[in-house]
Every structure is written in C-alpha cells, then in structure tokens.
Predict the 3D structure of the following.
Amino acid sequence: MDENRKAKYEQLLNQTRDDINSIEGEIERELAAVKEKLAGLQTEKKAQLTIYGGYCQLLGMPNEFEADDEDED
C-alpha cells in the first residue's frame, strides 16, 4: 500500500473513531435523561399511590394498588 492510500485510510480510521466516540457520548446523555425522567415518574407514582390509599382508607374500600405498591419496595 502506498503512503497516500495509507494516510487516507488512517484519516478515515480516525474520523470513524471520533464518530463512534461522539455516538457513545450521545447515548450516555440520552440514558441519563431517561433515568432522570423515570426517577421523577416513580416519585410521582409513589405520591399518587399514597393519596389513593388514603382515600380508600377514608371510604373503607380496598386499595387495588396496594399489592403493586408493596412489590416495588
């Protein structure tokens, strides 16, 4: 392989490596955002389950979500 062709392939190799690193960084940022969103939703769900359980208790009704709530702890 001549030097020009080798230099071209090395340049393409480096560019592709940079692209891969960029994609990996983007994946990590997206995963972090999803994890943050899920944590917020879990907190919101827990609060709503607590409120719902209180209403069921006041009304003397069974809490249909009680088993689900215990499974998540």
Observations:
- The radius of gyration is 26 Å.
- The chain has one domain: 3-72.
